[in-house]
Amino acid sequence: MTKTAAAPSNLGAIDAAHHLHPFSDMKKLNADGTKIINRAEGMHIWDSTGKQYLDAFAGLWCVNVGYGRDSIAEAAYQQMKELPYYNTFFGTTTPPTTLLAQKIASHTGPNLNHVFFCNSGSEASDTWFRMARVYWKALGHETKTMVIARKNAYHGSTVAGASLGGMTWMHEQGNLPIPGIVHIGQPHWYVEGGDLSPAEFGLKVARELEDKILELGEENVAAFVAEPIQGAGGVIVPPDTYWPEIVRITKKYNILLVADEVICGFGRLGTWFGHQHYGFEPDLAPIAKGLSSGYLPIGGVLVSERVARVMIEELGDFYHGYTYSGHPVAAAAALENIRIIEDEKLVERVRDDIGPYFTEAWRSLADHDLVGEAVNVGLMGAVQIAADKSTRRRFAKPDEVGTLVRNQCVNNGVILRATGDRMLASPPLIISRSEVDQTVETLRKGLDWLKDNHKE
Ligand code: PXG
Predict the structure, then answer these.
(1) How far is the C-alpha of 411 from the C-alpha of 81, rounded, in Å?
(2) Over the stretch 105-123, which tens digit does the pLDDT of each residue have?
């Protein structure tokens, strides 16, 4: 195979001249200069200055099997030579696409046994949103169209994805949310729990769903969507009381339960899917990211027997799909990615070995003066920065303290993410014990730095 062309030395200037980045203040970025990442292997990435970083964030929550997997590159290359593209629209499929659907279904419960493919988590949001509505319409429930989502959730950047998401600063750009989507509270005990115990608070916010259904009328509500653990919102681990109550309410009022598995899926929590960790089965579940470990773009929606039966038996055509739905090359890469997760027992590794190790190391940060809580499930963790941990008081400018600590960590060679004043880790599932130690020590050093250098 030929090597990729060497990048020109003025790539930064070219980037500033021609490339608009997602979720970026372009004026500031162009002034500061972009970091050019040009190589990766295993747990590490390198920038164009030759600096090495431990990627404790798996790219963007996605590189579950780590970088540099030749066998995924080979699978994609072979598939590209054999059949680079064919569609799945007019009565055709390709072998990797169908085999991938079967493979995914082998890791869900028996009920969640169909897959609709797309290319990203955002497209998956748009896909299930339409699916939920056509499901109820096909059953004759024309008015069951409203979707209840949560504040501070992230479900993507397309119009439906950003509307389902609960980030108001995203809504302000583009007049969102679109009609038919409403938001209820999130189970973020540390910040919003007040004097309630986590268990009481979990029940309280779950019951906002019941209140909202009663307010809107059960006959008008199609679905409720939530991430098993909110990711981009700050790795918000719900109290144990939360999910059972949500499940009870969605059953009682007969609305579809949608679990957004884009981050939690494919092993991160020590189960194949996040809903398995919490012991429930959704009706629909968007997936992406870890499905291919980011090697190629691919996403999908897991569809339960309940919904699939109606789509197959009652609906007729579902007028929805993407040129690249089930793209054979992406599917071949995803199949090989799942083979690696299976053969290297990465899910079991997170559940029984590195997950428990990470839990102990990560939660040891709770003794730091500036740490309000250190939480995780499997390899998904958050550290809440606190100005006064005894009262759960936060710094006046949460974004500022998070960014400062993050920059310290990155300068010290470990990639972590900050959401406001929460520091987030989501490493590849192959992380070693010493790399867990390095991650935690580097974060501790960053927090020490904040303590010594930042005054409110
Ligand atoms: N659902 C969830 C739960 C996600 O985390 C999406 C849907 C959308 O997926 P796509 O593939 O369209 O990006 C996501 C994506 C961040 C960050 O800064 C998180 C995501 C994407 C970009 C940035 O944490 N999550």
Answers:
(1) 41
(2) 999 988 999 999 999 999 9
**What span, in angstroms and rounded, lies between the C-alpha atoms of 280 and 287?**
16
Instruction: Write out pLDDT tens, residues 283-323.
Output: 999 999 999 999 999 999 999 999 999 999 999 999 999 99
Strands 414-415 and 52-55: parallel
Helices 242-252, 198-216: axis angle to 10 degrees equals 20
The arithmetic mean of pLDDT across residues 60-75, rounded, is 98
User: Is 232 a pocket residue for ligand 1 (Cβ < 6 Å)?
Assistant: yes
Q: What is the pLDDT of residues 139-148, one digit of tens each?
A: 999 999 999 9
pLDDT at 414 > cutoff 60? yes
- So what CATH class is 72-343? alpha beta
Question: Of 200, 186, 198, which is closest to residue 229 (Cα–Cα)?
Answer: 186
Helix %, strand %, coil % of the chain (to 5):
45, 15, 40
Chain-centroid distance, C-alpha 70: 25
Enter the pTM of the model. 0.97
Instruction: Note the CATH architecture for domain 35-65+347-453.
Output: Alpha-Beta Complex (3.90)
Scan for tokens 């197959």, then name that residue. 312
Q: Is 208 in the pocket of ligand 1 (CB under 6 A)?
A: no
The contacts of residue 48 (CB under 8 Å, 6+ apart) are 7, 11, 35, 36, 37, 38
Q: Is the distance from the beta carbon of residue 116 to the nearest atom of ligand 1 less than 6 Å?
A: no
Helices (H), 318-416: 328-343, 346-352, 354-363, 398-411
Please provide the average confidence, as pLDDT, over all residues in the chain: 97
- Rounded Cα gap, residues 288 and 269, in angstroms: 15
β-sheet with 37-41: strand ranges across: 37-41, 44-47, 52-55, 414-415
Return the ligand 1 atom nearest residue 299 CA.
11
Domain edges within the chain: 35-65+347-453, 72-343
pLDDT for residue 5 is more than 70: no
**Helix 70-82 / helix 328-343 crossing angle, nearest 10 deg:** 150
Is 80 exceeded by the pLDDT of residue 234?
Answer: yes
Ligand 1 atom, smallest distance to 158 CA: 12
Binding site membership of 163 for ligand 1 (Cβ less than 6 Å): no
